[in-house]
Specification:
This protein is an alpha/beta fold. The chain has helices spanning 11-23, 63-73, 87-92, 95-114, 148-167, 189-198, 218-231, 248-259, 286-291, 299-312, 314-322, 324-338; strands spanning 2-6, 28-33, 53-57, 77-80, 119-125, 171-176, 178-180, 203-206, 212-217, 237-240, 244-247, 266-269. The protein has two domains: 2-180 and 215-240, NAD(P)-binding Rossmann-like Domain (Rossmann fold, 3-Layer(aba) Sandwich); 189-213 and 245-271 and 300-334, UDP-galactose 4-epimerase, domain 1 (Alpha-Beta Complex). The structure holds 2'deoxy-thymidine-5'-diphospho-alpha-D-glucose.
Length: 342
């Protein structure tokens, strides 16, 4: 197996590379990553000295790069993690979301068709379903995305579906829940709050913090993608979720406990996502479980372990939070609400 992992220097993509290497010691792993603000070669530090691993910088929407790489590496499988993934950034500026998450998927699908790739796994999100008040989304639920980010992911999903229908491209879609664990860029709820709380800084909770998310550990998510790569049926969609539903406030409570801080550092701010802020995500992963996959991580233990990872790995995140891109995002997005405590 010679696998092209796009977005492999990102959070879930890098976990996938490790999971793939453990399961397939002989697989050729080729990472294509644009190294945008969220991509980080240090996420792939475990691959130093691995002769069957290669890294290439580049965007998935660049046809010359994608097709050149597939040809010269004789790629047989593609797993696509490359995406712009932060809702809040998509509300500030959507262009890059459409370019990567829609045009990029188109480029990969065309390449899959032309080079007769054996399987293309498109890694997507439960957010394409929108918000659900009660019950669970299944793979049959309609797509009702509410932010430019989730709409761009839904656009990619629909292209995948159409390429399967029109050209029988052997493509499969996974839709994962809110993912946590080491190496997550500190803009998403858990690492953003953990790193700020470790530094004794205020954290911004949107509205009353009663929104509900379903959490899954990055390694369980990556194992789910691997299961789909190995056993998923072309043309099918598989949800990857772990039934750990928590209100944002409950997550914050754990983060405060684990960092030894108190609620006086938590500031409720007006919801920047306004009507686009989904109240609740919840999905059934029964279809993937039927293939044999099971999540292995215990949420309460692993979220605490994740905070301890951030406490120990300041060498990983401090350069990020000091970077100009990060500082200007946080200033522009949270400055008006958090005032001087940035
Ligand atoms: O469900 C899967 C999705 O989960 C992925 O597709 C996305 O890429 C990923 O970003 C995540 O989307 P969310 O918007 O749910 O993640 P985020 O960590 O940004 O926010 C989680 C919840 O926490 C959400 O209700 C908004 C809230 N929040 C977030 C931030 C960053 C806050 O209250 N304050 C914050 O500063």
């Amino acid at each position: 197996m010679r696998v092209l992992v796009t977005g492999g220097a990102g959070f879930i993509g890098s976990h996938f590379c490790r999971v793939l290497r453990r399961a397939h010691p002989d697989a050729r792993i080729v990472v294509l990553d644009a190294l945008t603000y969220a991509g980080n070669l240090r996420n792939l530090e475990d691959f130093e000295g691995d002769g069957n691993f290669a890294f290439h910088p580049g965007k998935i929407q660049d046809r010359t790069v994608v097709e050149g790489l597939i040809r010269c590496e004789s790629i047989t499988h593609i797993v696509d993690f490359a995406a712009e993934s932060h809702n809040d950034r998509s509300i500030q500026n959507s262009a890059e979301f459409i370019e990567t998450n829609v045009l990029g998927v188109y480029t990969l699908l065309e390449a899959t068709r032309r080079f007769r790739i054996e399987k293309y796994v498109h890694v997507s999100t439960d957010e394409v379903y929108g918000s659900i008040e009660a019950g669970d989304f299944t793979e049959e639920s309609p797509l009702e995305p509410n932010t430019p980010y989730s709409a761009s992911k839904a656009g990619g999903d629909l292209l995948v579906r159409a390429y399967w229908k029109a050209f029988a491209v052997p493509a499969v879609i996974t839709r994962g829940g809110n993912t946590y664990g080491p190496y997550q860029y500190p803009e998403k709820l858990i690492p953003f709050f953990a790193t700020r709380l470790l530094n004794g800084k205020k954290v911004p909770i949107y509205g009353d913090g009663t929104q509900v998310r379903e959490w899954i550990h990055a390694e369980d998510h990556a194992n789910g993608v691997l299961e789909v790569l190995e056993k998923g049926q072309a043309g099918e969609v598989y949800n990857i979720g772990d039934e750990n539903e928590r209100q944002n406030r409950q997550i914050v409570e754990i983060l405060l406990e684990e960092t030894g801080r108190t609620w006086d550092l938590v500031k409720s701010i007006p919801d920047p996502r306004r009507n686009a802020h989904d109240r609740r995500y919840s999905m059934s992963a029964a279809k993937l479980r039927n293939l044999g996959w099971r999540p292995e991580k215990t949420f309460e233990e692993e979220i605490r372990r994740t905070v301890r990872w951030y406490a120990e790995r300041r060498d990983w995140w401090e350069p990020i939070v000091r970077s100009e891109d990060y500082q200007s995002f946080v200033r522009a997005y949270y400055g008006p609400s958090l005032g001087e405590d940035l």
